[in-house]
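Pinned message: reference record for RWD domain-containing protein 3
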Amino acid sequence: MWLWRPAPCCCMASAEGTGRCSAARVAAARPRSPRARPGRPFCGGAARRAPLPPSPRPRPGPAPTAPRGHRRPGRAAALPPAGGGAASLRAGAAMSGQALEELSALAAIYCEPDACEVLAVSETHGITFRIQINVKELLDTDILLKLLFHLPVNYPSTLPEISVNSDQLTRAQCTDVKDKLLEQAKKHLSEPMVHELVLWIQENLKYVIKQPATVCNEKTTLSKAESTEDAIWMLLLHLDHMRAKAKYVKTVEKWASDLRLTGRLMFMGKIILILLQGDRSNIKEYLILQKTSKVDVDSSGKKCKEKMISVLCETKVQAQHKRFHMFEVKEYSTLNELQKEFEAAGLATLFSEFVPPLLK
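Predicted structure (C-alpha cells):
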C-alpha cells in the first residue's frame, strides 16, 4: 500500500522555527485579497485577485424638466381663458404667432381681475378680447374704458377692429375715441400695436373727448337712451338648434348683460329666436361673439361654434316700436302666443315677415 505525501515546501519552518522562503515573504508583503483567510500564508503560485464588484447600472429617472416659469422655445405662452374661463385656448397653424405673443404679453400687463378677458379664438376669424382700463379725463375723474379688439388672422398686416364703451361717456364720445384709435393704428401697421394704442388713449383721452364726462348710473343711461331713439338698433336672429341649452342660455344672458342689450330669447317648439335692442356697436360686438365663440356642442359632445345662425333683420328702432327694459328668456307653447309677444312690442310686421316662413 502506497501512501502519498506532499513534497516539503521551502517555506516550512526549520527546527528552530525561524526559516521563511522568499515567496512567503513576498505574499505577506502584498495586500491580502478579500478572499484570503487571515493567518494563512499563500505559497505555490501567484495570488488570486478578488473579482471587482459590478458597476451599478444607472436607473432610468424622470426626463429633465425646465425650471418653473421658463418658456420652452417654439411654444406659445399660455393664454387666459375665454368667455369667463371655460377652457384653455389653442392656436391653430393659421393663427398669427405675433398676435398670440402680444395677447400673452397683454395678459401679463393687465393682470387684474376683468382687466383683460379673451372672448374668442378662431383659426379662421382671429382673436377677440376686451381690455378695461381706468383713465383720467379733464376733471381728473376716473373713467372706466372698455376696449374691444378683434385681431384678424393676418394681423398685424391688417388693422384690428376696435369698439369702445364706457358708462361715463356719451355714444358720440365713444365714437370719437374709436376713430382716434384707428388713426393711431395706421401708424403702427405691420407691427404689434394694441399695447401702444392703450397707452396712447390713457395719455390723450382728455384731448379726444370734446367735453368733460359725466358719471351716470344705469337709470340715467337708460333715460338718455330713450330720448335718442334714432341711436338704438334692433337685431333679430334665428338659431337652428341648441344642444347644450342650459349653458347656451347662460352665455347669451351674460353677453347681453355685458353689452347692455335688452330683448328676448324666445323658444317656440323648434323655433329659437333672439331679439336684441341697444347701441349698434354693442350689437356688432354681440354678433362677433355669437359667430366666433364655442357656445354649443356637436353631436359627439365636443365644444363647437354656432354655424347655424341667420340674421333675419337688423334695423333702427322706430317710434312705434316698444323699448325692452331688460333681457328675458321666454318659452311659448303656441305660435299665437309668440305672435302676441311681437305685437305687444309693436313688431307685428316683423313677425309676419320673418317668423311664419321658419315653419315651412
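Pinned by admin. Summary line: Residues 228-359 form a domain with the Alpha-Beta Plaits fold (CATH 3.30.70.100).
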